[in-house]
């Protein structure tokens, strides 16, 4: 299997993408990676390592789309960027999937534009992978569609369930519609209509509330991109804020070094399910291909795990399952 | 000053409302409370205590609106409930404010219907008080208005700022618009228009994101009621989920009893800013009166603090400030 890797995406390129790709190749014998980026940046990084030249390929892509570029403009004006070239290779069938830790907006726009939509899908979605007390689950949409129609929410539920079951290994994933109350007559007209459509999905958990996310009272939380984006970023901020608050409490309680170290160890372990490196990245679902995006701060480990998630999408043919489910 | 207290609101009535009201009267000599509810329920609870009959009054109100009642229906059919009678007394000027730990929807409906709206206010709002790493701040709206117009969001910002400054004692409270990105062209058309209106507020912090809430990067977070309600409930679930995760980590690390106790103590202290009892309740802002609602599980301490918050609203004349600001 071949996966294209954006070597100039994220805050720590080219080091982390290159190291992550090489680690993935070492672990999986059936994998070939194609690293994309400006030759003068990526090649010297690659040359720092020993690697199998038959399974680590390089494709020159001189343009760089950075975090501050306007998504739609960048995709049009930077046709020779790693993102546009990499997705183009995927479209032509040279690679089976594409991953990047770069500009999410540009990646979504390019993935939709270059790969096109899957049959039956109204709007591709950023299907984020969200930490709960019981492990990672789905929060869909996480910012691709700020305004939605009921059928979009229905499709988010269908796609999120397939991803949760196949890639996150959650059997019979329960789909919940984020709302202000459990009763089915709660919420806006859009939510009420979406609720009726979602009823046809197996394992539909009905309406769920904000308090149901962390205890994992559903496995796929469906919402519009405005709610999803705010919730996702709020969730990401918990670990840091908490560490700040616990640090202050340690000081106030005047713990000695040994005690403070023990408390810090317990907290670190307790918060380990929130470690985004483990899932690596989140997929754009509904596009006609396999495209994943990672956090800007992705480590080499996160990049490696994102490559593995892309491989799993190919192996399980997630897209064929989505097309069948939406028929 | 006279505050009416719903003696049959919340999960622990009449005990907690009665105890909270009596504690408040003990602490504040200028306070008289009027307890409302069915005589056969409230009087026996009152008689368990020694109290000053000239400053603790009772008003019989035989109907009870419970948590499962439909708000608009209950307000119409239960005219002799503590909620409708208490707000009616407030409307007529017999008391200066009303507090309850009862059905939020019914309280909002009754407050709006009985008290009416303040001049210049389009929609009354549930202005929730939200814990951050630096103390309690405002999240407005928390569920009263699931769909909004830009001017509603502007008014939420104005009202929230006045409450934060006067009742939460946050000087020069910064108002932020919850959005998917910081740039002012981000978000839906409604958010873009609201951003332009909010610019006229002093200390406008611009757009803020989900990750800005817990670190307290603004003091008033403005959003529609759907986002606010989901965010509020998500936030409320953090402490419990975390305790669950930390409990699991303590077991896994095989701490002895003494060590476990120390860790639990630090966590408890770290999470103490999240203790809702301290703020007692949240106000309905934009109604022509002082009306606050508390958590269903409100303790006597929470009830007492809610009474004090209502008194402060009267003393600072929050409503006059709102009318002036919106002129």
Tell me the layout of helices and strands.
Two copies of one chain form a homodimer.
Chain A lengths: L1 E5 L8 H13 L4 E6 L1 H8 L9 E5 L10 H7 L4 H10 L5 E4 L3 H12 L9 E8 L2 E6 L9 H17 L8 E4 L10 H10 L5 E5 L11 E3 L2 H12 L1 H15 L4 H14 L10 E5 L5 E4 L5 H16 L2 H8 L2
Explained architecture:
The structure is a homodimer of 327-residue chains. Chain A is an alpha/beta fold and 327 residues long. The first copy, chain A, has two domains: 1-121 and 286-327, Isopropylmalate Dehydrogenase (3-Layer(aba) Sandwich); 126-276, Isopropylmalate Dehydrogenase, CATH 3.40.718. Helices cover 43% and strands 17% of the residues of chain A. The first copy, chain A, has an eleven-stranded mixed sheet with strand order 3-2-1-4-11-10-5-6-9-7-8, sandwiched between helices. The model of chain A has no long low-confidence stretch (mean pLDDT 95).
What string gives the helices and strands of chain A in order?
EHEHEHHEHEEHEHEEHHHEEHH
CATH class of the largest domain in chain A: Alpha Beta
Order of neighbouring strands in the sheet with most strands of chain A = 3-2-1-4-11-10-5-6-9-7-8
The biggest sheet of chain A amounts to:
11 strands, mixed
Label the CATH architecture of the largest domain in chain A: 3-Layer(aba) Sandwich
Based on CA atoms alone, the radius of gyration of chain A comes out at 20 Å
User: How does the overall form of chain A come out from the CA principal axes?
Assistant: globular
